[in-house]
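Shall we go through a protein fold together, starting from nothing but its sequence? Label the sequence line and the structure token line clearly, so we can match residues to local backbone shapes. Would you write everything just below, so we can both look at the same thing?
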Amino acid sequence: MLGMLGLGALGVATAPTLQRGLESFLGGAADKDPTGLTGLLPNGGGFRYYSVASSVPHKNEDNYRLKIDGLVDHPATYTLADLRALPQTRMVRDVQCVTGWRVPDTPFEGVRLSQLLDAAGVRSSAGAVRFTCFDGAYSESLTLAQARRADVLVALRMQDKDLNHSHGGPVRLYVAPMYFYKSAKWLSGITLTSDVRPGYWEDRGYDVDAWVGRSNGRDDDAT
């Protein structure tokens, strides 16, 4: 019995380390897995990693750029240092994937998208925002009203750490009240448009408005 208790205690003590190791392994494997099969592996309530491109370049402080253009008066290009120098907002919400998995109480930190839009001077003819990514394949969109919500971030940190490559770093979109496919990884472009342009998954049948619990035929609790 003492031996069993000892093994149980060892399992409790080592479980977080093993879980982090598993998530790290799956993240690295997903970077090199164009089939997406690594997303089917059990992951103990943690994140699953998805990419729609066979490979994604790595960006860092030296070569990362975020471009804001389209129907704006002041197009701009931000470096990672520029974004870090702006006021940061931290929020803690559940991350909910439309495939069913959830990671509760996940901290995100970054610049409110509305702040970047205000600085760009959005024209009256704009009604939506299109997001593009440096994987060269993924895109997303929001209405202008959705993009201006206080819980939509250009995120630089997650789980109180800088965003790593597997999680879409160094910069990703974070749309807290919507399913996670709206939170585009590897964000590189923000373009103001007159109307919503369906993104990668919307072109493949997903809902354009992806509110948790109110879209895609799901009834999950709202985050």
Q: What stands out?
A: The first helix runs from residue 2 to 31. Residues 198 and 204 are 9 Å apart (CA to CA).
